[in-house]
Amino acid sequence: MTRFHKINKPLILKISPVLCGLILAGLIFINFNITQAQSKSFVWDQYDVVITLQPNGEMHVEETQTLNFSGEPFTFGFATIPIGSAGNNDGIRNLSVREGDIVYTENRSSQPHTFYTYNDGEEVGITWYFEPALGRRSYTFSYIVDGGVIVGTSAQGDGDQIFWKAIPADHPATINNSTVTIILPEGVSPQQYTGTTDYLVAGYAHGDDAIVATQVSENGRIITYQLTQPLFTNEAFEVRVQFPHGLLNIPVPKWQSQMQQSDTINLIAYSLSILCLISGLLFVVFLWYSLGRDPELDLVVPEYITQPPDHLHPAVVGTLVDERADMRDIISIIVDLAHRGHLTIAEKDKGKDHTFHLIEKDRSHLRPFETRLIKDLFGSGDSQTLSSLKYAFHSKLPNIRKQLYNELVTEKLVDNSPDSVRKNYALIGGGLIAFAVFVFFFMGFVAAEDVIFALAFCPAIVLSIIAVAFFIVSRHMPRKTAKGVAAAQKWLAFRTYLQNIELYENLSETNDIFEKYLPYATAFGLDRSWIYKFAKQTTTPVPTWYRPIHSGRPKSRQTSTTTGSAPSLEGMSDSMSGGLESISSSLTRMLNSTASTLSSTPPSSSSSSSSGSFSSGFSGGSSFSSSGGGSRGFG
Predict the structure, then answer these.
(1) Beta-bridge partners for 49
(2) 343: buried, middle or exposed (CB in 10 Å: 19+, 13-18, 0-12)?
């Protein structure tokens, strides 16, 4: 049994004010901390950097930062400097920190007047700790830079350079004033612009030299760079000076040698990539020109031909002219077989379906592709509904297409199957794509970062472009023989005749050719216009092999058929009372439905589609970015 306890209301009333008070105090405390954190800020009143160049190329750098802290006390400062190719130097060493006369000790105790450093291979960092500080404070840290001088050559206009990022862009507060000084060794002074007395010195604040006042001492050894306006967050202060090469015995820094080697590798890789790209594309064009182009014949063919120029079947003709066994070519096989008396087609279910009936007739003279289609269409029976072939016939199409391509080879119209030729060249393209992927990942893994684009991306891109060229050209590589070219030209002239039949014939007097040439019109993709043109002639008879659902007057005589047997041609002919005009839409619908049904694929396949209808200045180091940089901050 569940027990309910009686609530003591007076007790709750006593406790509630206490809880409210605690919650209110907590909110006040949190708000106080947030306010204090938000009010904790600082600015640099002065940020000075002195860079002293030693005769051996070392740079002794001293940064003196004078700050004004406000809000909560600050207890530490930090700085990071990139090294190697990222910082254009060979390393940072001998870091030290002092505050006035107090020299900080290096350890990790995090106690005031101590500091620690780290080196992760990409940057050197230092963090120093001081007594909680507010108001104006000054801290100085110094370090030695190895390999910070960009070494040039003795060529005219060239020289050695100091190009240093004295204040990095990553500083969290405004710097009101800053002076950077570079001190050169005895006997060394900046170079001058050719033909002038102006020194090759420059300072940049956020990339702008107009807000940096530059001055060179009388002896040329001391160069001063002074900001003329505050430096804001995300703005760097860079200084640059060039002096004659050879005055100091400064070895070429490792990072510079590596960069120059990388530049050489990149140049070679880019050049080879361009050469390979041009050569590859030219090779693809050469392949097409030598192996894919049809032979040129000195043959004169009239604009149109009124009779089929040879014995080729309609489907073979359609495959020959475009070198593809399309769905319309396969439908033309059905129409041609029906015209020659091997099968009939009857409309059923108000035009929603059709039934194919196989006629008993000698089939020994049929071509292999015709025998294959009959076997695939009817199986072991003698009738088949179109609806029963939906999703079931598409797997038969490749074999029929293969037989059509083989027929071209048998007739010596082509040397090789057009489909096989296309697939072979597409396979080369696929191999190049696979090789491009391998090169991309392999070179991306083994190549250094500064050459990875040239050694990984460029070859992969070049190979991919050439692969695409192979994919494109593969469509045009099938080649006809001289016999095939002559036959195709003649058949195209016959196609012109069929396409413009009304210009060459009086359709009302030649309507007997409608059924005769319908298979060719189907293979040429002219079936719709062919039916439409002859349907306007009232004397055009309905094909004897097609039996639509009759919607006109009662038939003149009864046809004798038994259930399941094929209607006789005589009976089908007698049942037509309105001519082609009355059933043209039915005939067109049958052709389109047959094409879409036979090529239909199950919805679960990756793609579902049907065929539908079948119709001067600094030199030497000018390509280098400034050295140093990193970040500075306090907390």
Answers:
(1) 63, 180
(2) buried
Report the relative pairing of strands 160-167 and 149-150 from DSSP bridges.
antiparallel
CA distances from 623 to 90, 167, 169, 200 (A): 18, 21, 20, 16
Both tokens of 326, joined, read 């399309």
Instruction: Look up residue 325 and give its amino acid.
Output: A
**Selection from 109, 103, 106 nearest residue 93 by Cα:** 106
Residue 318 vs residue 511, higher pLDDT:
318
Percent of the chain with pLDDT over 90: 71
**Phi/psi-derived region of residue 262, left when phi > 0, alpha when psi is between -120 and 50, beta in every other case:** alpha
Residue 233: CB atoms within 10 A of its CB come to 11
Q: Tokens for 83, please give them.
A: 């090294």
CA dihedral 180, 176, 47, 76 (to 10 degrees): -160
In 505-585, the DSSP E strands lie at: 546-547
Q: Which residue is associated with the tokens 């040129």? A: 296
- Amino acid 39 reads S
Alpha helices in 288-417 (DSSP H): 314-322, 327-339, 368-378, 397-410
Residue that has been written with the tokens 């509630």 in this structure: 16
Choose among 151, 45, 434: nearest CA to 442.
434
Give the burial string for 216-231 (b: 16+ CB within 10 Å, else e): beeebbebbbbbeeeb
- Round to whole Å and give the CA distance between 73 and 67: 13
Say which residue the tokens 């020994």 belong to: 364
Q: What is the 3-state secondary structure (H, E, C) of 251-309?
A: CCCHHHHHHHHHHHHHHHHHHHHHHHHHHHHHHHHHHHHHHHCCCCCCCCCCCCCCCCC
Q: Which amino acid, residue 98?
A: R
* Residue carrying structure tokens 């209808």: 613
- The CA–CA distances, whole Å, from 612 to 40, 546, 588, 593, 594 equal 73, 20, 12, 7, 9
**Exposed/middle/buried for 558, CB within 10 Å: 0-12, 13-18, 19+?**
exposed
The stretch 240-247 carries a mean pLDDT of: 92
28 token code pair: 């006040």
Q: Look at residues 551, 469, 49, 164 and name the one whose alpha carbon lies nearest to residue 292.
A: 469
Q: What is the pLDDT of residues 598-630, one digit of tens each?
A: 999 998 644 434 333 333 455 555 566 777 778
CB 148 within 8 A of CB 164: yes
Neighbours of 262 (CB within 10 A): 18
pLDDT at residue 391 is higher than 80: yes
Q: What angle do CA 269, 274, 275 make, to 5 degrees?
A: 95
Number of C-beta neighbours around residue 111 at 10 A:
11
Q: CA dihedral in degrees (246, 247, 250, 251; nearest 10)?
A: 10
* Nearby residues of 213 by Cβ (< 8 Å), 6 or more positions away: 203, 225, 226, 227, 228
CA distance 487 to 312: 9
Q: Which one, of 200, 287, 226, lies nearest residue 469 by Cα?
A: 287
Higher-pLDDT residue of 387, 350: 387
